[in-house]
Amino acid sequence: MRMQRIVVIGSSGAGKSTIARELGTKLNLPVIHLDKFYWHPGWVGTPEEVWQNMVSDMVMEEQWIMDGNYRNTLDIRLQAADTVLFLDLPRWLCSWRAVERRIQYRHQSRPDMAEGCQESLFKPDFPEFLLRIWDYPNRARPDVVQKLSTLDPRKRIIRLTSRGETNKFLADPIMYVSRSQIGSLISNIN
C-alpha cells in the first residue's frame, strides 16, 4: 500500500513541518502546511466555518502530506488519510525546539507559516505557548490517541517517539513502512 495521503500530527515543536517537507521531497508528494492557510498577517485566524470548508476541500486532492494540529479538523483529515504519522516526542524536546524556532526565525515568518506572522521570543504569549507544549501529554494527546484508536484498522499509523526513530523513518520511509504493521499501533501507545 503506497502512502498517498499522509497526516502529520503531534505537539507544537515536534517537527511536523520539517518532517512533512522532507517526506514530501522523498515521496514526491505535495505538502500542505495548515498553518500557512489558517493564519493571516498579524496572527489572525480563519473563522471556524470557513476553516472547516477549506480543510474539507484540501483533503479531496488525490495526494498530499498535511501537517498541523487543528484538532477541530482532525477527524476530516484522519478519515481522508491512508497514513498517519504521529510524532509522540518528549515534551522537553518539543519545548526546546519551539524556543530554537523562535530564535531562528525571529522577526520573520517561517517557511511553513503565512506571510505577516513573524516569530518573536519576547511576545507576551510565548510563556503560555511553552506551557501548552509542556501540557500536551495531558491536554491534547489523550484526545488524539482516542481518535487514532477508532480509525479503520487498514489505515497505517506510524508513531515516532524519539529523534532516532524519526531519523530512521526519514532515511527510508518506504522501507520503514514496509517493516511496520498495517493498522493501528495504538495499543502500544498508552
Structure description:
The chain has helices at 16-27, 34-38, 48-58, 74-80, 91-104, 126-134, 136-139, 141-149, 163-171, 173-179, and strands spanning 5-10, 31-33, 39-40, 44-45, 64-67, 83-87, 156-160. With 190 residues, it is an alpha/beta fold. The chain has a five-stranded parallel beta sheet with strand order 2-5-1-6-7, sandwiched between helices. It has a two-stranded antiparallel ribbon with strand order 3-4. Strand 3 and strand 4 (44-45) form a beta hairpin. Helix 9 (163-171) packs across helix 10. It is globular. It starts with a strand and ends in an 11-residue tail after the last helix.
CATH classification, class level: Alpha Beta
CATH superfamily: P-loop containing nucleotide triphosphate hydrolases
Can you summarize the main beta sheet?
Answer: 5 strands, parallel
CATH topology: Rossmann fold
